[in-house]
Amino acid sequence: MDNNTTPSRAKARWKILAAALRNKDNVNEHSIRRFDGFRLFTRTLLTDGWYSYKWKAGMQANPVHVRLLSSQTSAEQLIGFNNTGNICIWASEEVLAHYALRHQEMFSGQCICEVGGGMTSLAGFQIASNMSSTEVVLTDGNIESVNNLNLIVDKNMKNGENNMMVSARKLVWSTTEDGMDDLKNSFDVIVCADCLFFVELHRALLSTIRTIMKDKGVCIMFAPSRGGTLEQFVKVAEETNMSVHVTERYDEEVWKLHEHAINTNKHYSRDIHYPIMVTLRNK
Q: Strands, E, within 88-184: which ranges?
């Protein structure tokens, strides 16, 4: 990798946080967010930072209400574990939610965990609201995210129409299994979106996945290549003796939207914006 690639990516990513601190709505000033996702969901403002996300491809799906991070964000809230996913819903999370709704049979009767769900865990909440999974656990390494996820749990599950166990908790990735004793070998399916930005956390993320995943479980990840960070993660995963499958064309609707964006949006970058699917299993 070019030595100048990582600093430039980091600079662009953290510009988003700086813009959030300056109270700029949706941070559209920066090119990395001038692509507003594939619009697989209809987003409707409810009130006080609450939005309804309705899947466009299947009208039978229940909408999910999520609370986005307030534009009045303090520096203290952004200090700590990777918080760059806390100020918006990235394309990878959107695509993961869409993919899960397309393949509901994968989650039926299964115990699910979303790792690194950020402020909204959109995919995890779509699974919880629309599929007959036995349990859904939503996790992030930042307590501000977890607090927000708990508010979303209360908002979406308060009517008691869904008997599924849904919870949110703090989970910091670690190579030592610290803080994961009660989660060991617990999950049939782990989902994860755009969690490969920090290369130095790849081994900790892999170790966490292997610790909490059942022996015959599966982890479904979506992330852009982003300067080769995804490819580096895949290499590390293969070195840890995991079965790794990489798929670029996993959904025809997303692929068409991707091609359309290439041809019509000068700010769209395949490297930054197009999520690639990575499937992990224990050998």
A: 111-115, 135-140, 165-170
* Full set of structural domains in the chain with CATH: 5-282 (3.40.50.150)
> Angle between the 202-212 and 229-239 helix axes, to the nearest 10 degrees?
50
- Residue 67: exposed, middle, or buried by beta-carbon count in 10 A (0-12, 13-18, 19+)? middle
pLDDT tens by residue, 39-76: 999 999 998 899 999 999 876 899 999 998 754 445 45
Conformational region of residue 162, where left means phi above 0, alpha means psi within -120 to 50, and beta covers everything else: beta
Please say if the pLDDT value at position 160 is more than 80. Answer: no
Joined tokens for residue 74? 């303090």
Cα-only R_g, the chain: 18
Nearest to 282 by CA among 203, 183, 211: 211
pTM (predicted TM-score): 0.85
Residue 87 and residue 116 in contact, taking contact as beta carbons nearer than 8 Å: no
Task: Classify residue 267 by burial, with Cβ atoms within 10 Å: 0-12, 13-18, 19+.
Answer: middle
Rounded CA separation 92/44 (Å)? 20
Per the CB < 8 A criterion, the answer to whether 13 and 32 are in contact is yes
d(CA 186, CA 206): 15
Task: Write the pLDDT tens digit of every residue in 128-154.
Answer: 999 999 999 999 999 999 999 999 999
